[in-house]
């Protein structure tokens, strides 16, 4: 059986971080995901999908995201039921997030990580050596413009 969900969307509001009685962190949020087609008015509708993320990933998610953040999530669909205060059975379907990626950055927080990253992984930044007085990169071009590459038709795989 396969139960895998991958979504890309924007948070409808700031995620809510809570802690269970046993000290485990859990965050809940709603992801607005645009549909692939336009409605009769020429606009894209969106689905609003409830999501839950647990433990350290929940802490990281709430630290680096806020309302409007573009995120990618990887998880599984889960259903649960409970009885409300009136005794009615309530069914809940939500995505349990296993992994997430930040797909944009927070412009207002220069002290926080501003690069897209995956939960639990370190940020990889590449420093490019540039000459600030001339604005040119000092990284050499792998194929100089005056050199020609001699490839025969027999060398091509197609």
TrEMBL record:
N-terminal signal peptide: none
Protein name: Single-stranded DNA-binding protein
PROSITE patterns xrefs: SSB
Chain spans, region Disordered: 111-158
UniProt xrefs under NCBIfam families: ssb
Compositional bias of kind Low complexity: 113-140
PANTHER family: SINGLE-STRANDED DNA-BINDING PROTEIN
Protein purpose: Plays an important role in DNA replication, recombination and repair. Binds to ssDNA and to an array of partner proteins to recruit them to their sites of action during DNA metabolism.
Description of how the protein assembles with itself and partners: Homotetramer.
Composition-biased stretches (Acidic residues): 147-158
